[in-house]
Design a protein that fits this description.
By secondary structure, the chain is of the alpha/beta class. The protein folds into two domains: about 30 residues; about 300 residues, Metallo-beta-lactamase, Chain A (4-Layer Sandwich). Helices cover about 25% and strands about 20% of the residues. The protein has a seven-stranded mixed β-sheet. It is globular, with a radius of gyration of 21 Å.
Length: about 375
Amino acid sequence: MEKDFTRRTFIKGMAVGTMAGYLGAAGLSSTVFKNQLLPQEKLNQVDIGEIKALKIKVVSETSWYDNNVFLNDVKGAGGLLVNQYTIPWTCAGVAAGYQGSNLGGFSTYIEATLMDGKVMKIHFDTGWNPAWMEKRFREEGVAEKLAKKEIDFMVLSHEHIDHFFGLEATLKFYPDIPLYVPKGFYQEGFDFLKGKSFPAANAINNIPHRGKMTVLDSSKVNILYPGIALMTFDVPIILRVFGEQAFVFNVKDKGLVLVTGCCHQGIISYMEEVRKKVKGGEKIYAIEGGLHISPFEDWDPQYDDLIMAFNKYGVQKIGCNHCTGFITAEKMHKAGLPVIKGTARNMTKRDIYLGNGDELAIA
């Protein structure tokens, strides 16, 4: 250790540490000093091909109904690092909930028209509360398509409760549906898929998945069909979940469309990875799904910089919902970003963004 630890040395060290801490906290969402301090990375882009058209239907973006009930469940169990399979989630007595349950769920139905005219039908996530999810699947025609095996495959974005614990509502109609999961699933997740239940967490699955399951590589862009790809991010998430994957579609004459579950990897990090790894990533046409910005309506000033950063990517349509806070959508509207409003039906609380039953079509 230097003996002459001067005031000047201390201030210099503090400045460097503060800057590192700021960039670490703000991540790529911060534009301040980014170009000066972060080296430009070489692009290594993959041509994923093209599709003719894309239609996205929000089946359920309602994770849970009462934020305070959810947070109290987590706090009572010991905090955000507790294993989600051990938390006694509240499923009765909630006035705002579905049949008194606080459990909702996230699920999206996607139709991608390939260049040869074939329509790929995709089931993206399966929600949380099986009763709520079955109701929504029936109302939006997803249940019928599952039962007739018209849906080509299912994708699980990540292992979180509100995207995965409603599994039985899907397998009831199509137990051998082909399935893609991201790298990072824990053994409990694979056991749940095989029919093991976790009663302590009100996670019940009595119907084992019998179809082909593929765990996708997180080191590359995974092309499923021409114009349809998945990217997996090795990111630690609350409630002891790890890894999330999200879609990249390339719509002819429009550009890239990103479809997310929660986007725990960060929406700017997601767009940056697409920019670097996917041909055409310099300009993203549309984004649909969860943005994971202030989901509990607790705004942090650095998010303002994040919203400003959207302009860099030339996004023409933003169909955000789910874990995108209402305050986030309000600020995006105020900033002039192209956030698409919804209809506020099927228990979606506001029309400020795409809600349950709303669609986004790109052709």
